[in-house]
Amino acid sequence: GAVVSQHPSWVICKSGTSVKIECRSLDFQATTMFWYRQFPKQSLMLMATSNEGSKATYEQGVEKDKFLINHASLTLSTLTVTSAHPEDSSFYICSAMVARNIQYFGAGTRLSVL
Amino acid sequence: AQSVTQPDIHITVSEGASLELRCNYSYGATPYLFWYVQSPGQGLQLLLKYFSGDTLVQGIKGFEAEFKRSQSSFNLRKPSVHWSDAAEYFCAVGAVEYGNKLVFGAGTILRVKS
Q1: Dihedral of the CA atoms B84, B90, B95, B100 (nearest 10)?
Q2: Residues of B with Cβ-Cβ distance to A105 under 8 angstroms
Q3: pLDDT for residue A53
Q4: Residue-wise pLDDT tens digits, B31-88
Q5: Do B105 and A43 touch (CB under 8 A)?
Q6: Chain A residues with a Cβ under 8 Å from any Cβ in chain B
Protein backbone atom coordinates (compact mmCIF):
# COMPACT_ATOMS: atom_id res chain seq x y z
CA GLY A 1 0.00 0.00 0.00
CA ALA A 2 0.88 3.66 -0.19
CA VAL A 3 3.30 4.93 2.45
CA VAL A 4 2.89 8.19 4.28
CA SER A 5 5.73 9.41 6.45
CA GLN A 6 5.11 11.86 9.26
CA HIS A 7 7.87 13.62 11.13
CA PRO A 8 8.59 14.10 13.95
CA SER A 9 6.82 11.32 15.79
CA TRP A 10 7.10 13.13 19.11
CA VAL A 11 7.94 16.70 19.96
CA ILE A 12 8.13 18.57 23.22
CA CYS A 13 8.25 22.34 23.13
CA LYS A 14 7.94 25.32 25.39
CA SER A 15 4.82 27.41 25.48
CA GLY A 16 4.96 30.23 22.95
CA THR A 17 7.18 28.48 20.44
CA SER A 18 6.18 27.15 17.03
CA VAL A 19 6.36 23.56 15.89
CA LYS A 20 6.38 22.25 12.34
CA ILE A 21 5.12 18.78 11.44
CA GLU A 22 5.85 17.26 8.06
CA CYS A 23 3.73 14.80 6.13
CA ARG A 24 5.23 13.14 3.08
CA SER A 25 3.82 10.68 0.59
CA LEU A 26 6.78 8.46 -0.15
CA ASP A 27 5.78 6.44 -3.18
CA PHE A 28 2.95 8.42 -4.73
CA GLN A 29 1.83 11.94 -5.41
CA ALA A 30 -0.99 13.41 -3.41
CA THR A 31 -2.79 16.52 -4.51
CA THR A 32 -4.90 16.34 -1.38
CA MET A 33 -3.78 15.71 2.17
CA PHE A 34 -5.71 15.99 5.39
CA TRP A 35 -4.73 16.96 8.91
CA TYR A 36 -6.49 15.47 11.91
CA ARG A 37 -6.28 15.93 15.61
CA GLN A 38 -6.93 13.15 18.08
CA PHE A 39 -7.48 13.70 21.76
CA PRO A 40 -6.78 10.87 24.20
CA LYS A 41 -9.30 8.07 23.92
CA GLN A 42 -11.24 9.94 21.26
CA SER A 43 -11.72 9.71 17.56
CA LEU A 44 -10.06 11.73 14.85
CA MET A 45 -11.31 15.22 14.16
CA LEU A 46 -10.58 16.72 10.79
CA MET A 47 -8.76 20.03 11.09
CA ALA A 48 -8.16 20.97 7.49
CA THR A 49 -7.87 19.83 3.91
CA SER A 50 -4.58 20.64 2.26
CA ASN A 51 -4.51 21.00 -1.51
CA GLU A 52 -1.28 21.26 -3.42
CA GLY A 53 -0.70 24.75 -4.74
CA SER A 54 -3.67 26.36 -3.04
CA LYS A 55 -4.79 27.48 0.37
CA ALA A 56 -5.91 24.92 2.87
CA THR A 57 -9.57 24.59 3.76
CA TYR A 58 -10.13 24.65 7.49
CA GLU A 59 -12.96 23.04 9.39
CA GLN A 60 -15.23 25.16 11.48
CA GLY A 61 -13.67 26.13 14.77
CA VAL A 62 -10.07 25.55 13.67
CA GLU A 63 -7.93 28.67 13.86
CA LYS A 64 -6.15 29.06 10.57
CA ASP A 65 -3.66 31.53 12.02
CA LYS A 66 -2.67 29.09 14.72
CA PHE A 67 -2.48 26.00 12.53
CA LEU A 68 -0.66 27.00 9.37
CA ILE A 69 -0.79 24.49 6.56
CA ASN A 70 1.43 24.53 3.51
CA HIS A 71 1.23 22.05 0.64
CA ALA A 72 4.03 23.23 -1.59
CA SER A 73 4.59 20.03 -3.52
CA LEU A 74 2.74 16.89 -4.51
CA THR A 75 4.52 14.89 -1.84
CA LEU A 76 4.77 17.25 1.12
CA SER A 77 2.35 19.03 3.39
CA THR A 78 3.36 20.78 6.59
CA LEU A 79 1.40 21.80 9.65
CA THR A 80 2.88 24.53 11.81
CA VAL A 81 1.44 25.06 15.25
CA THR A 82 2.23 28.67 15.98
CA SER A 83 2.71 30.06 19.47
CA ALA A 84 1.87 26.71 20.95
CA HIS A 85 0.17 26.49 24.32
CA PRO A 86 -0.49 23.52 26.58
CA GLU A 87 -4.02 23.18 25.23
CA ASP A 88 -2.52 22.47 21.81
CA SER A 89 -0.96 19.29 23.17
CA SER A 90 -2.45 16.45 21.22
CA PHE A 91 -1.83 13.72 18.69
CA TYR A 92 -1.77 15.09 15.15
CA ILE A 93 -2.21 12.74 12.21
CA CYS A 94 -1.97 13.45 8.51
CA SER A 95 -3.31 11.49 5.60
CA ALA A 96 -2.79 11.56 1.87
CA MET A 97 -5.49 10.74 -0.60
CA VAL A 98 -4.83 8.41 -3.50
CA ALA A 99 -7.04 7.22 -6.31
CA ARG A 100 -10.60 6.23 -5.50
CA ASN A 101 -10.64 8.55 -2.52
CA ILE A 102 -8.67 6.29 -0.25
CA GLN A 103 -6.72 7.99 2.52
CA TYR A 104 -3.47 6.58 3.80
CA PHE A 105 -2.33 7.80 7.17
CA GLY A 106 0.95 8.79 8.71
CA ALA A 107 2.04 7.38 12.04
CA GLY A 108 1.12 10.57 13.86
CA THR A 109 2.94 13.21 15.88
CA ARG A 110 2.53 13.57 19.59
CA LEU A 111 2.91 17.19 20.59
CA SER A 112 3.51 18.09 24.20
CA VAL A 113 3.61 21.77 25.06
CA LEU A 114 5.12 22.62 28.44
CA ALA B 1 -25.51 15.97 9.42
CA GLN B 2 -23.21 13.12 8.72
CA SER B 3 -22.46 10.81 11.61
CA VAL B 4 -20.93 7.45 12.33
CA THR B 5 -21.85 5.41 15.36
CA GLN B 6 -19.79 2.63 16.83
CA PRO B 7 -21.94 1.55 19.75
CA ASP B 8 -19.33 -0.57 21.49
CA ILE B 9 -16.54 1.36 23.18
CA HIS B 10 -14.79 -1.80 24.37
CA ILE B 11 -15.07 -5.40 23.30
CA THR B 12 -13.22 -8.34 24.80
CA VAL B 13 -13.02 -11.66 23.00
CA SER B 14 -11.07 -14.83 23.58
CA GLU B 15 -8.31 -15.70 21.20
CA GLY B 16 -9.71 -17.92 18.48
CA ALA B 17 -13.26 -16.66 18.93
CA SER B 18 -15.18 -14.82 16.26
CA LEU B 19 -15.50 -11.05 16.24
CA GLU B 20 -18.05 -8.54 15.03
CA LEU B 21 -17.62 -4.80 15.43
CA ARG B 22 -20.64 -2.69 14.70
CA CYS B 23 -20.81 0.48 12.65
CA ASN B 24 -23.88 2.49 11.70
CA TYR B 25 -23.90 5.67 9.72
CA SER B 26 -26.17 8.54 8.86
CA TYR B 27 -25.25 10.23 5.63
CA GLY B 28 -26.90 12.53 3.16
CA ALA B 29 -25.12 11.18 0.12
CA THR B 30 -24.07 7.88 -1.36
CA PRO B 31 -21.34 6.86 1.05
CA TYR B 32 -18.19 4.95 0.74
CA LEU B 33 -17.00 3.22 3.87
CA PHE B 34 -13.78 2.20 5.51
CA TRP B 35 -12.48 0.34 8.49
CA TYR B 36 -9.15 1.39 9.94
CA VAL B 37 -7.13 -0.08 12.79
CA GLN B 38 -4.90 1.89 15.15
CA SER B 39 -2.32 0.47 17.52
CA PRO B 40 -1.37 2.61 20.54
CA GLY B 41 0.59 5.70 19.55
CA GLN B 42 0.39 4.85 15.88
CA GLY B 43 -1.39 6.09 12.82
CA LEU B 44 -4.25 4.34 11.12
CA GLN B 45 -3.93 1.32 8.88
CA LEU B 46 -6.57 0.66 6.27
CA LEU B 47 -8.25 -2.73 6.77
CA LEU B 48 -10.83 -2.62 4.00
CA LYS B 49 -13.07 -0.36 1.99
CA TYR B 50 -16.41 -0.38 0.23
CA PHE B 51 -17.29 1.82 -2.71
CA SER B 52 -19.86 -0.13 -4.68
CA GLY B 53 -20.66 -3.57 -6.00
CA ASP B 54 -20.43 -6.69 -3.89
CA THR B 55 -21.60 -5.78 -0.42
CA LEU B 56 -19.28 -8.24 1.28
CA VAL B 57 -15.73 -6.97 1.12
CA GLN B 58 -12.56 -8.69 2.11
CA GLY B 59 -9.68 -6.92 3.73
CA ILE B 60 -6.27 -7.56 5.14
CA LYS B 61 -5.48 -9.74 8.16
CA GLY B 62 -8.52 -11.94 7.57
CA PHE B 63 -11.11 -9.21 8.17
CA GLU B 64 -14.28 -8.76 6.19
CA ALA B 65 -17.18 -6.33 6.33
CA GLU B 66 -20.69 -6.32 4.97
CA PHE B 67 -22.47 -3.22 3.74
CA LYS B 68 -26.21 -3.29 4.45
CA ARG B 69 -27.85 -0.25 2.94
CA SER B 70 -31.25 -0.98 4.49
CA GLN B 71 -29.70 -0.96 7.95
CA SER B 72 -27.14 1.77 7.26
CA SER B 73 -24.53 -0.56 8.65
CA PHE B 74 -21.04 -1.68 7.80
CA ASN B 75 -20.05 -4.23 10.42
CA LEU B 76 -16.55 -5.65 10.60
CA ARG B 77 -16.05 -9.36 11.18
CA LYS B 78 -13.29 -11.85 11.68
CA PRO B 79 -13.91 -15.59 12.16
CA SER B 80 -10.98 -16.23 14.49
CA VAL B 81 -9.27 -13.49 16.45
CA HIS B 82 -5.56 -13.49 17.14
CA TRP B 83 -3.87 -11.79 20.09
CA SER B 84 -2.19 -9.40 17.65
CA ASP B 85 -5.61 -8.06 16.66
CA ALA B 86 -5.87 -6.18 19.94
CA ALA B 87 -6.08 -2.52 18.91
CA GLU B 88 -8.60 0.23 18.33
CA TYR B 89 -10.84 0.01 15.29
CA PHE B 90 -12.42 2.96 13.53
CA CYS B 91 -15.22 2.99 11.03
CA ALA B 92 -15.19 5.94 8.64
CA VAL B 93 -17.56 7.27 6.00
CA GLY B 94 -16.92 9.62 3.13
CA ALA B 95 -18.51 10.86 -0.06
CA VAL B 96 -17.43 12.72 -3.12
CA GLU B 97 -20.26 15.15 -2.49
CA TYR B 98 -18.61 16.16 0.78
CA GLY B 99 -15.15 16.70 -0.62
CA ASN B 100 -13.96 13.21 0.28
CA LYS B 101 -13.68 14.22 3.91
CA LEU B 102 -13.93 11.27 6.25
CA VAL B 103 -16.19 11.21 9.26
CA PHE B 104 -14.96 8.78 11.87
CA GLY B 105 -16.78 6.83 14.50
CA ALA B 106 -15.63 7.04 18.10
CA GLY B 107 -13.72 3.80 17.82
CA THR B 108 -13.96 0.39 19.43
CA ILE B 109 -11.13 -0.92 21.56
CA LEU B 110 -10.65 -4.63 21.09
CA ARG B 111 -9.07 -6.66 23.85
CA VAL B 112 -8.10 -10.26 23.23
CA LYS B 113 -7.79 -12.63 26.15
CA SER B 114 -5.82 -15.82 25.94
Answers
A1: -80
A2: 36, 43-46
A3: 85
A4: 899 999 999 888 899 999 999 899 999 999 999 999 999 999 999 999 999 999 999 9
A5: yes
A6: 1, 4, 6, 32, 34, 42-44, 46, 49, 57, 91, 93, 95, 97, 100-108, 110
